[in-house]
Amino acid sequence: MLNKCCQKNGNKQKKLQEIKDSLDVLNDLNRLRILCLLREHKEICVCEIFRALNLPQNLVSYHLAKLKEAGFTESEKKGAKVIYRAGQAKIKNFQALINNLFKKIYG
Question: φ and ψ at 45, to 5 degrees?
Fold first, then answer.
């Protein structure tokens, strides 16, 4: 008999797919560095992010777009600046999914 986690159309499979998709987005050192900056500063302008990371602005913008698309960041335009902050709802949901997965595996 198969475990419920192994069933392709089950709710657990959907949660596993959500974890996998989130891990795909987070599987980049620059994106993790961006999230680290956002944790330290709560809100930060994109211009400050690329300076802090010593990366080209277009590369930082690319990574920010990927993080925003996945819900890990949020942005707000303030005048000419774009301010980023962590997507708290997505991060909390991701933490809960990971915690639940490992709780069930390792009890």
Answer: -75, 145
